[in-house]
Amino acid sequence: MNKELLEEKKMHGDASFPLQVYLAEHRAGEIFEPHWHESLEIIYILSGSATFTIDDDKHELQAGDYLFVNSDKIHGATFSETCRFHAIVFDLKMCLGTGLDICNHKYFNRMLERQMLLPNVIDKNSAIYPDIQQWIRQLYGKYEQKSDGYELYAKGLLTLIMASLFEHGQMIEPDKNRLNKTNQMNRLKLALNYMTSHYPDTIPVKSLADLSNMSLYYFCRYFKSVTGCTPVEYLNRLRISKAETLLATTDKRVIDIAFEVGFNSLNYFSEMYRRTKGISPSEARERARIAAQNRIGV
Prior knowledge:
Elements: E1 19-26, E2 31-35, E3 40-47, E4 49-54, E5 57-62, E6 66-69, E7 75-78, E8 83-90, H1 102-112, H2 129-145, H3 150-167, H4 176-197, H5 205-211, H6 216-227, H7 231-249, H8 254-260, H9 266-277, H10 281-296
Antiparallel strand pairs: 1-8, 2-7, 3-6, 3-8, 4-5, 4-7
Helix pairs in contact: 2-3, 5-6, 7-10
């Protein structure tokens, strides 16, 4: 699952049914790039393990674990072994009723206004874990089958999940410390968006710290605690991600791609590409070519 390193603007699903389910697989050493979006997300680890970060909180997940990601939270992951997971991404508004629906007032509106947040993780030993597990698996199954009524199942199962979390006191009410963290996170997003918009340029770390209204020392520490890497590493990974797309979709020379995405040396670009992706740029292009031929049956 390739995600842009900025706020996602794309819609998951469509306006009439804003829900989409993804199946992702990442190998050891790969990175699920930090990003954020307005939609809610439920991640279910199918096999392997991963270290997920939500804002600056780390979660070690194993097969069978669930992770709930609230709106506008920066999240990403690193992998020490091959990991497969489902990601259910949806707009909470799909569950809303109309008019004076009491469920809107008591529950959904409070979530939309960030007065109540989903818990990031559900303890496997908790009383609600078996039900949550069953409902998420059913949701994925109905989505894959897409038989008549699957949209109703999806809305109903999501509502059951939310109802169970409310019933068992699992929802989280933001405190002042959490609001302060949100403030910091919003300032960090300014730097992340700037890097995304200007990745081919030379970007001094000090200018990013100033943009975020943080000291250079604190900015570097905070940046790494959230993204899992330094600003320079993040920028290089962003450039490599852009280069990966160009290698797969254009006939441009490797050296031209290297300079286009912001590298000043072909050797350094090749070294960083291999370090990040495990293969050379030329090998990546060849793999993309073979994959494209297989898709069209050449």
